[in-house]
Design a protein that fits this description.
Blueprint (H helix, E strand, L loop, with lengths): L27 H28 L8 H5 L8 H7 L2 H33 L4 H10 L1 H5 L2 H11 L6 H8 L11 H28 L4 H10 L3 H29 L3 H6 L11 H10 L4 H26 L5
Helix pairs in contact: 1-14, 3-14, 4-9, 4-11, 9-11, 11-14, 13-14
């Protein structure tokens, strides 16, 4: 058996020079990225910086004294005003009640739908169901609000027709506080449950087939299979759902405004409706900006809590 001698002074063979497409230069990647960066700066970064700066100024555009003073710097006065505003806290608590009502419903219903779609069989029907789940997601918030107004209309709404079939007296859904709150809950659950189901279904598709089949041989309990095998793969998706829904509920405006405009009274006056009223009806942009910044901070804090509690790396 002979060994091949290696010359330590031998020079490595020169590598082939990289081939560039004609017209590809040093700045080509930056030119491709520039439109996205400019759009992000225009619609994301600049408004945020403007809101932060405005939140530290007395900035009511209908108050002539503010204009003559050049919208003066007032430090934390706007934030202190918001924190002392009982209506702000009432709207925030109502938003929390709305979140704690819709998100658990969406998680339970989305999980049931995902588990049914994960079962083998139902080939064509399962494909149709997956496609139909996209329809509510593709519907804009304003259109969802219009659909809600038709469904819960007092005179010709589908909800009252359904109650008549069950022998229950009709109700003026959007005209009483409880009915209006139930109506926006139903429409939000209708729109966002398919999104949760698709996220969970993606998590279930990551479970290795051999592990799932071995677990099915070990136990007949569906709960044990879900708890010990499937749930760890769905936790990253659950974390994403909680973060996205928290941010979305805090800025949910279009659907509620189209359906109820925050009423009757303050029954559906979610925090986004309240901030919009402060900014575009009272025109106090300083206070409205402080409210928006506080909601941004709340969203970041909730996101960090969700990641710390629910997120787990899959090994």
């Amino acid at each position: 058996m002979t060994a091949t001698a290696v010359d330590p002074e031998a020079k490595p063979a020169p590598s082939a020079s990289p081939r560039h497409h004609p017209g590809y230069g040093r700045w080509t990647p930056f030119l491709f990225l520039a439109p996205a960066v400019l759009a992000l700066l225009a619609i994301g970064i600049y408004p945020t910086i403007f809101a932060v700066v405005t939140s530290f100024r007395r900035y009511n555009i209908t108050r002539r004294a503010d204009q003559l003073d050049g919208f003066p710097f007032v430090g934390l006065d706007n934030y202190l005003s918001v924190l002392r505003d009982q209506s702000f806290w009432d709207s925030l608590l109502l938003t929390g009640k709305f979140y704690l009502t819709v998100v658990p419903l969406q998680i339970v219903l989305g999980l049931l739908i995902a588990l049914m779609l994960h079962k083998p069989g139902w080939g064509f029907l399962r494909a149709i169901t997956r496609v139909s789940l996209v329809v509510p997601l593709a519907t804009t918030y304003a259109v969802v609000g219009l659909i809600g107004r038709l469904i819960f209309n007092r005179d010709f709404g589908v909800a009252n027709q359904f109650m008549d079939w069950l022998g229950i007296a009709s109700s003026d859904w959007l005209g009483n506080p409880t009915g209006a709150f139930v109506a926006i809950v139903v429409m939000d659950v209708w729109q966002w449950t398919p999104f949760v189901a698709l996220i969970f279904l993606a998590g279930l598709s990551m479970v290795p087939v051999e592990i799932e089949e071995a677990a099915r041989l070990e136990t007949k309990s569906h709960w044990a299979l879900l708890r010990h095998v499937q749930l760890p793969y769905m936790l990253p998706g659950l974390t994403a759902v909680l973060i996205l829904r928290s941010a979305d509920v805090l800025k949910l405006f279009d659907m509620v405004f189209v359906m109820t405009r925050g009423g009757p009274g303050a029954a559906t006056d979610l925090i986004s409706i309240y901030v919009q009223r402060t900014g575009f009806k009272v025109f106090d942009l300083g206070v409205a900006s402080a409210q928006a910044i506080l909601l941004l901070v709340l969203t970041i804090v909730l996101s960090r809590i969700y990641i710390r509690i629910f997120y787990r790396e899959i090994e």
